[in-house]
Amino acid sequence: MSVVTADGNPGSLDAQEAERLVGAGGARVLDVRTPSEFRNLGHIEGAALLPVDMIACAVATLPRDDVPLLVYCEHGVRSAYAARFLARAGFPKVINMSGGMSCWRGPREFTAGSPYGALGPSPWLVANVDLLPRAGDALDVACGTGRHALLLASAGWSVRAVDRDAGAIAQLSSDARRLEAPVVAETLDLESGDASLGLDAFDLILVVHYLHRPLFPALVRALRPGGLLLYETFTTAQALRGKPTNPDFLLKPGELPALVAPLSVERSFEGESEDRMVAAVAARKSGRG
Fold first, then answer.
1. Cis status of the peptide bond prior to 253, with omega within 30 of 0
2. What's the pTM value of the predicted model, to 2 decimals?
């Protein structure tokens, strides 16, 4: 089996060879088509869905181990790009299925798939792309291993990413260097009481699945005039379904719009999203730079 070569390029298998590999349980499988293709055209059993335009998230969310990663699309073009991207990011065993599903003769599943699960971005970010400028300076707060920071960087944003987890920041810094992505990752204790995020520094601030109420004034100060805050996290209703359960990390009903004041809320949501109970806002700072 050919895997990542010495020059950093991914390996390749035709559909028949890929079917044997999958049938033997010897690969993790990634579908980089659209959700409609995944559902309507059928997909390989057990495949995860992550459309190619979100592939940067996979660098932060896919396991990086010795299990071969088989990547496919419909004709092999999008998957070739995605496989090269993942190989460049340091995944050791990436394989493109040449010819794609158009050549696949094995069994297919026709179930729906979501690009917003464990591998992909927050649906709130994607739903509000139309509110963003084409590029600028972004801040990813409590970024973890950087699924959103890398995605924004791949779209042309210059990103500062902060988190208290030094291990996660080290991994994100390494990934950004490999990909030559404009991400500056920084270990920062956001709950220290004196965490500074800057003044009028960012066109976009993104916070997903994190809540520390005293941080909101710093978020507002860090936005430039006209800048946008995208915020999404769990509500108290989530505690009935599982973690988190600590009320310090859960929004009360209707609480989030008040927390982001004096920003102007352009869009909001509260309810179930991707099997989680969340609240979210897209809120803008008045004025223009």
1. no
2. 0.93
**Identity of residue 40:** N
Which residue in 160, 156, 159, 158 sits closest to 134, CA to CA? 156
Mean pLDDT, the chain cut into blocks of 10 residues (289 residues total): 62 96 94 98 97 98 94 98 96 96 97 93 96 94 98 97 97 97 97 87 98 96 97 95 90 96 97 93 86
Domains of the chain: 11-103 (3.40.250.10), 123-284 (3.40.50.150)
- Taking the CA atoms of 107, 112, 115 and 118 in sequence, report the sign of the dihedral they define: negative
